[in-house]
Every structure is written in structure tokens, then in C-alpha cells.
Amino acid sequence: MASIRSSGLRAASLLGLFVTAHALPHQSSSLLPRDPASFTDLGCVVGSANGQRTLHAKSYASDDMTIESCATFCIKNQFFGVEYGRECYCGDTQSAAAAPASDCSFACPGDATEKCGAGGRLSLYMNELYCPPAPATVPGVPYLGCFVDQGARVLPENLLGADDMTAAKCAANCANYSYFGLEYGRECWCGNSPPKQVAPDAECSFTCSGDETELCGAGGRINVWGAPVQSPTRVGDFTYQGCFTDNRDAHSLLGKTTRSSQMTLEMCAADCSAYAWFGVEYGSQCYCGTSLQPTAEQRPQAECSMRCSGKYSDVCGDADRLNVFTTGSTATGSNLATVDGFSYKSCWTDSTATGARSLVGPDLRSDSMTIETCAAFCKGSAFFGLEYHRECYCGNELGGQAVPEAECGELCSGNSAQWCGGGVRLSVYEVTPVVVPPSSSAPPASSAPPASSAPPASSAPPASSAPPASSAPPASSAPPASSAPPASSAPPASSAPPASSAPPASSAPPTSSTSTSSAPSSTITPPPEEEECDEEDPTSSAPPAVVTSSIS
Fold first, then answer.
1. What is the pLDDT at residue 309?
2. CATH fold of 234-326, please?
3. pLDDT tens string 380-391
4. Exposed site from 187, 309, 367, 374, fewest CB < 10 Å?
5. What is this structure's pTM?
């Protein structure tokens, strides 16, 4: 019982579809092409071949089928046909083989005076009111054509998929982009760069899901609309020069760089006011420079068509493409030969083989950076370097390597007449070596104060340097000790070695410096009378050289 009910439900469902399909033409009776001139009878043809129906765009079946109802159903197609008495088929192309007219013998159930094909045979007609689908006309936005869209998307932004897709709907979805495109009947894509690879128009054959009179690309094919916005000829003091190439490994403008999600031409011009050139790239990037590098090549304006991220009416280059402006000025920055004990060395990389910075000491960042500011901050270091127009680094060792001077093209944030390195580039200064005068220029010893020429105590003639015993009267002629004359009879001081052989008393070192210890006091036991005599002897302060020699 359940199976019977199920079969009955399926039959009712199919009947509902037929009734709905049959009712649709009658709901659109105003479109019915009743005038015989509105469609042309092409005769009886084979209904299918090699498993493919002759007309395969769409179809429906009805127990009230007529030629007119099928024509109305297929009003937006170029061809229509009826088969097996009650089936209607539509299509825009056909290449069916002809069949004898007698083969199309089934009467139409809705009008027995008409023939509605037969089994495997199609009564074929062409709709004279047919208007082939075409790319829609969008006011103010030119149609560019059919393009290949395989691999990387030609318009990669803001996808919208809809079952009521039209060109107008897609244009509204892509209002903030330079280009929009329709693909696969229901997909809308946006972008700011133009597509490159053109495809034959016939390959964009899908009608739009929201309007069958419009084309919406196909699989891997996209109908594209849009037009590049032209750059203004002047921004402030800068004049537009054109679209140029830019290489991320060797930029065309080597000065200051900025990035902003709100980038405009005016913003970039203000950031580069100290420079003679500026360029905008990839919608949000700004580059400054004192000159345009020789490696930059001019390209067609169409290659610089990406809208500025902060102002849709402006274009800001494209990937590896710059919209370039200049004031025409030839002024450039400079490096200081010397500054506060440092000398300029070279433009230098700010990286080493290990990935470390070239200068690893203290660092400073300032929006008023100058060479002098960095030199003062790094006082006491062997090196300092300026980078990215506002950064200062110090160090006692320098890593990295020298690079061409052009790579240090950013002007200092605090002095637009000075260079302050670049991106990952340092303007390096090293401490100036101190020059020591040669020793020959030192004052001669003779100009030293006289006191220094007095012989030190160690220079005084030691006791052993006193005149040898042979210079004294021989022992044989000397009176014996017992008959020795009193101290008063001893030879006067004048009998001592001449003054030229011994320093005069005035030149003798102070008593405290005199080395009298050369004659041990334990061996000298002068008689009491000699002590009394010594107290009266005015020369008693002199070393007792004579006494020492007489005791020998």
C-alpha cells in the first residue's frame, strides 16, 4: 500500500511540474508570437544524435501543447521545436540532420491542426523575434571584452555569487574598484588591474542568472567592464611624469618610503615635500627620491590603474608600477665630512650574514634626526650610523658591508639637506683617529729645570770611589797611630780631593739623602776628643770620607 501511495505521489509531483510548465506560457500570453512572421518553420529534423538533443537549452512538456505555447516558452531563444506531440525544446544553436516531413506526424494535443513532431523527430522553428544575449550596457562604464580567467584570478576581489545576477548588480558590488567582471552565469568579481589575455567573444556564452538577455562569461571565461582612471597632471608643486617600472630589489626611487591604507596622491606629495620626486605604487605605497633611477622604464598608462586606497578617484600605480611625479628640482642631500670627532665612512648595509644589525650598541629614533644629533648621542662609540631618515645606531664594531652611495638616499627628518641612510641602509661615520706628534718635537733634556740636573744621591761617589790609599801619604811615612797628630793637625779639607772631583758642599745632597751607611758605624769608634773636635769643625756636615779612609 505504501508503494502505491509513493508512486501516486511521484505521479502527482510530475503532473504538478507539467501543469506549472504549461501554465507559464499562458501567464505570459502578451509575448505569444501569434503572427506567422514571428517564427519560421524549418521542417522536420532528427530530435537527437549521439546522445545529445538537437535543442538542449531548456524544455517542458504539456498535454495542451501547441506551436504557439512552445514559441512563447522559448521567446528568449533563437530556436524552438516540438517533439512526441507534447514536448517543447529551446536552444540557440542547432545542426540537426533533416528528416522527411512525413516523419513529424504527431498532432499537437492543444491544436490537432498542428504537427508536433513524433518519436525521435522534432518539428523545428526559428524565432524571428529572438534577440541574442549580449554583454549589458552599463552607463558610464565601457565594456572591455571576454577574457581568460584561469589560474590566478584576473579580478581577485570582493566575489559575489547570486542567482539573480546581472551586470547592473555586479557594477554596484564593485563600485570602489576600477574593473568588474561576470563569470559562470552567476559570479561577480572586482579588481583594480586590467585583465591581460583576451578570449573570443563566443567563449563567453553563459547567460546571466538574473537576465537571460545578458552574457555572464562561462567556465574560465569572464566578461569585463571598466576603465582606468587618469592621473592628474599636477599635485601641489609636482608634475605628473607617467607610469614607470619599479623593482622591489632595486627601487626606482631610493628615498623615504611610507605605506598607508588611506593613501592619496596629496598624502604622498606631502610626505615627499623635501624630495624632488615621488611615486605611488600598489594602491597604498609612497616612495620619495632626489632622482629617478636609470633602471626605471616608462610603461603604458593602462599598467598604472590601481585606485588609491584612500581616494577612489585617484590611481596609485599597480604591482611593480609607479605613478611618478617631480618638481624638476636638482637639489640633493649631503654627508658631513667630519662631525664631532667622527668622519664619514660609506653607505653600509644594516645586516650581517647572521641576520644581526651592523651596529649593535645603543640606538635612538627621532622625527627631528640630524647627523649632529646622532654624533652627540653616540659620543664614545667607535661608529655611528643613520638609517631610514630618523634612526640612529651606535657601536664599537661594524658588521655588514659597503654598498653604492645611491642606496642611502633618504633625507634626515630633522634636516632635509643631509642624508640619513635608507631602508636597511646606514650612512656610517667612524671616530676620527687622534694624530700623536713625533717624539723629536719633545723639549730637550737641557731645558729641564736645573734641579733635575743635580746628581741624585746614588750619583754621589761611593766610599770606594774616594782616592785610593796610594794617593794618601804612604803608611811608612805616616806617623804611627800612637804619635798621630791630633785632629787639629790632620790635613785640612783642602787636602781632600779637589772640588772638581767631588761636588761642593753646596751641591751635596741633603744629609738625609747622603749615603753614609757605606761605612758601618760599628767599625767607627772615634775617640771622645774627635767628637768634640767634630762639633767645632764647620765641615762636620760633609761625609766623613777622610775618617773612613784613615780607619782603613
1. 84
2. Hepatocyte Growth Factor (3.50.4)
3. 999 999 998 899
4. 367
5. 0.43
